[in-house]
Amino acid sequence: MPARIRHIPLAEWWDPARAFASLYRDSAYSFWLDAGPDATSGFSYLGAASERSRFLTASVPLGTITVSVPGDPGQLARTSPTTVFDYLADDLAHAVENGANGDGFRLGWVGWLGYELGAQTVETPVHDSRYPDAALLHIDRALVFDHASRVVSLIALDENDEPSNHVDEWASEVVDVLRAASAHARLGAATETPHRTDAVWRHDETSYVDLIRRCQSSIRDGDAYQLCLTNEVRIDTHPHPVDAYLAVRAGSPSHHGGLLRFGDTALLSASPEQFLSVSSDGAVRTRPIKGTRPRSTDAAADAALRAELESSEKERAENLMIVDLMRNDLGRVSQLGSVVVSSLLAVESYAHVHQLVSTVESQLAVGLTGIDAVRSSFPAGSMTGAPKISAMSILNGLEDGPRGIYSGAFGYFGLDGAVDLAMVIRSIVLDPGGASVGTGGGITALSDPHEEVEETRIKAAALLAALGAE
């Protein structure tokens, strides 16, 4: 019998940052899907592993998934020869009763899909990642922040074999912690100014320019129309994930930010790009970003940069190529005639960059789910280039290492069938070896190599600053 979701509205509004720091700062398995520090619409979600949680990791080279207990991966770990998509499809079938209150995340799986998972969806060679190719935490309790109505709610699975008073006890504990934290007026532990440290780029400027020219050679040869070439920056630093995320959030506020902590690995993202959302009734949306200009503190110069982006032949062509690719990806799983471009080449402005954004929407074909839509579209065309199979194969030969979590996707697969995944861009990954930042850009026949190098630096600058790197 499907479980029921309890929905408990709280009497007071709480700041999500303060709530996360108070409740989960020291939780090794926790998440915060963040609508941004000044959000007036949308939702933020946060929570942590409970005694009922499961932790799923996928290995593409082995063709397996492993499900374990958070915090003790060896305890009762079960490894199966299957894909993360097949496992999720089986696990989420009829997971909750229909009519769960509200839109958005209705509990389920939260985590990331790494870029190299694309070897299972596109069947092209990739490097082996240093991280799991997917990592997802099953969440049965969470806090929901509705920024439009300024209402905080607790949601929890009311399992058939669990007395309801267990949920009430948890709700009471959460409120007690939040009120105690508010009384102390403290946002977690004091943060320290990061020590300045050097950033080590996988490809230096000379090497990256050479890779760009090799991309353009492949394009001239007719092997691709566009190639999303990327670079990786490693930094020898070990900040607390919450402190580092708060620094990223302050410097690069975004509507699809997030902090995911899974053991000794943490993803900190200020992503501005929604990879894919699917509602519980099958409405699909993707919002690819292609085209970038830096911001200026001078209003006239900033307006000129925005206008330059809007009129750039190269940037517009780049965006249109990815729109066509995403239309094709969604067309394979959508009702005939339902794929539409609802917004084309719109400029969106963020703290450090102007971006060119388009929106493609569709309705899932009967009998298909959000998991089918993700499998059909992953990895996102904005992070591969076009055509996708050829682009991924060419890039695998150029990039000299795995992308890992960067240029994959993160977010949730809900119990009610809803999916919301953001692109892993403008992101930091922390692990025992330090921190890494991925950056890149779309290369076309019209690209200026030195301008492309500068774009990668602009995209990485705020993240490196948050880590005290240069």
Question: Any overview of this molecule?
Answer:
With 470 residues, this protein is α+β, with helices and mostly antiparallel strands. It is built from eleven helices and 24 strands. Strands 1, 2, 3, 9, 10, 11, 12, 13, 14, 20, 23 and 24 form a twelve-stranded antiparallel β-sheet that branches. Strands 4, 5, 6, 7, 8, 15, 16, 17, 18, 19, 21 and 22 form a twelve-stranded antiparallel β-sheet that branches. The longest helix is centred in the middle third of the chain and has 21 residues, at 164-184. The radius of gyration is 22 Å and the shape is globular.
Task: Tell me, rounded to a whole number, the average pLDDT.
Answer: 92
Residue windows where pLDDT falls under 50 for at least 5 positions? none
Largest β sheet strand count, sense and barrel closure: 12 strands, antiparallel
Shape: globular
Helical content class: 25-40%
Q: How much is the radius of gyration in Å?
A: 22 Å
Percentage of β-strand residues: 25-35%
The CA-CA distance between the termini, in Å, is 55 Å
Strand segment count: 24
* Structural class computed from helices and strand pairing: alpha+beta
Q: What count of helical segments does DSSP give?
A: 11
